[in-house]
Sequence to fold (151 residues):
Amino acid sequence: MLKDFKEFAMRGNVVDMAVGIVIGAAFGVIVKSLVSDVIMPPIGLLLGNVDFENLFAVLKQGATAGPYASLSDAKAAGAVSMNYGVFINTIISFIIVAFCVFLLIRSINRLKRKEEAPPPEPTTKECPYCFSTIAIRATRCANCTSELKTT
Fold:
């Protein structure tokens, strides 16, 4: 049984999938940092010093009543909140990841699509009288000896 599992685990597709998942998880962390640390601060600054991480609506007060200065304060107090700022960050992260995957797949497809050569020039044609196959440059059919039009 251990031998079968080792054979399964070392199969090419499984290893490739595992590498893809690990790299995808690391890429997700990088994109999350890009969104929350690079993209959203300037957008928040343009919108009047808004910190998207701290945009939330309190649905139920916690042990200590609000208003809460930040989402972490609301969570520490045990408040139930709807965290729409975090959701906005997640949507932007998704769009960035989806766009990067799109670019990756597009590049792979472009590499797969090799420049297709035009079809080769035909070397034979069909006799219009006896329908046998003859050389393209023939002026007379070898089978029925009919004279052929040259084009």
In short: The beta strands are 57-60, 80-82, 124-126, 133-135.
